[in-house]
Every structure is written in C-alpha cells, then in structure tokens.
Amino acid sequence: MKISFIGSGRVATHLAIALQQSGHQIQQIYSPNLTHAQQLAIQVHAGAVDQLQQLDHQIDLIIIAVKDQAIAQVAQQLPKHLSNTLVLHTSGSTDLQVLQQHHLRCGVLYPLQTFSFEKSVDWQQVPLLLETSQPQDLTLLQDLAQQLSSRVYVYSSAQRLSLHLAAVFACNFSNYCYDIAKQVVDGAAVDFSLLYPLILETAQKATEFNPKDVQTGPAVRQDQQILKMHQDILQQQQRTDLAEIYQQLSHAIQRRHTAT
C-alpha cells in the first residue's frame, strides 16, 4: 500500500517505520514543521511536506497520528482531492465520528502501547484496536494490522475509550508512582535500582492474577502505625503533595478491600 502520515511524533515514527519494514511504501510525511517532517521522511524514504494541499492523491491510506485535540481540525482541513481515500487516526480516546463528519471512508488503528523515541517496539506483541465506518475497509485494515501484530481486535469507540482510560491508570499513573519512588530514595541517597526486582515482580503478577487478589502493603493490612510513619516522613520533608497522594491511595486501597 501507499501510505502517507500526518504527524511526525512518536506514534507516527514507530508506525511508519514498522509499515515500511512490512513492505509498504510510505509516500509522504506531513508536519507543519517541515524539519520534523523531514527527520521522519528520511528514515522511511518518503517525501516531506508542510502543507496539507501537497499531499499526493494517489495513495491508498492516510494515517493521522497527531495529538488528540488536533484530530478534528486536521480531518476538517484535509483537501478535497483525498475525499475517496481511507483516513485513519491512531487515538484511543477519539470517537470515530470525529472523522465520519468529514470523510465517508474512515477508521481507527489504535496501538495500545506507550511509545518513546529511545526504545524500539515489539509490534507482534502490541494490541491493535480497529474500527471502520465501512465494512469493506475493516477487512483491508485487518489485513494491514495482522502484518504488524498477532493481537488484532475490533472494538467500538466506547470500548476503545475504556481501554484508554485503563491504560492511563496502568501506565501513566503507575509510571508517575515510579517517579515518586525515585524522588523518595534520591532524597535519602539510596540506589533506585534496588526497587527494580520489586517493580518487575509486581507488573508480572498483575498479568498473571487478578490485581485485587495480589494487593500487598500497609494499607491492605490496615497497619495504621506504618501508614502514619510514612506520611510523617513526607511531611517532615515538606512534600505535602506526596503525603496527600499517599493518603488518597492508601484510603482507596482500604476501601477496595473492606467493601467485599
């Protein structure tokens, strides 16, 4: 397939490279910042443009990989010569109707993964969540997705949104807790790497058991003395923000485990 990308960030970069390696031709990379477009275009042997009107009409697929709040504006501004082209976005939280308002042939290719420029992605293990406005395009999109991943699912916009919300808790919030943990040990001149086995074991157990069943720690044990000691330490360090987070999470764990 001939594919053009709108966007040159992390998702666009990983996805464009993966599709090119799967044998597809990346035709163009669009970004309002031409330098950013060129940086990705060089990697996938594509052309770089900074005007939407410059997008080639002789392509099979356009993938919009931009910030969620920009998808609607991009969809509205796509030139008319692309009206018969299949247009996808890659967002977990954006309803398909955002594209349907402007394009008859549209869909979603949402990779349920966290992306960074520093680390490669094993696409075979990345869940790809699909949705299209036209049944015939779903077949096409499934074929494309199966070339990248062994985990391809067809989910509605509402289902995809629930996964996106869950991913914020499982990934973004948990990573912030790792950041807090590093701040705590850094303040006491303790090596953060000592926590690595604990972090990995906790994540592994969450994939093997119901997370509720393997909850540990002073909150689930109702150990009020330890809970108070930890909060006192944070207060003494003048980290009232972390003390508040600690208290809220501890109370939430206690409520969760006293409700049943």
Automatic annotation (TrEMBL):
Domain DUF2520: 127-252
Annotated ranges, domain Pyrroline-5-carboxylate reductase catalytic N-terminal: 2-88
InterPro entries for this protein: 6-PGluconate_DH-like_C_sf, DUF2520, NAD(P)-bd_dom_sf, P5C_Rdtase_cat_N, TM1727-like_C_sf
Pfam families: DUF2520, F420_oxidored
Keyword field: Oxidoreductase
Any GO molecular function: oxidoreductase activity
Name listed for the protein in its UniProt record: DUF2520 domain-containing protein
Top-level taxonomy: Bacteria, Pseudomonadati, Pseudomonadota, Gammaproteobacteria, Moraxellales
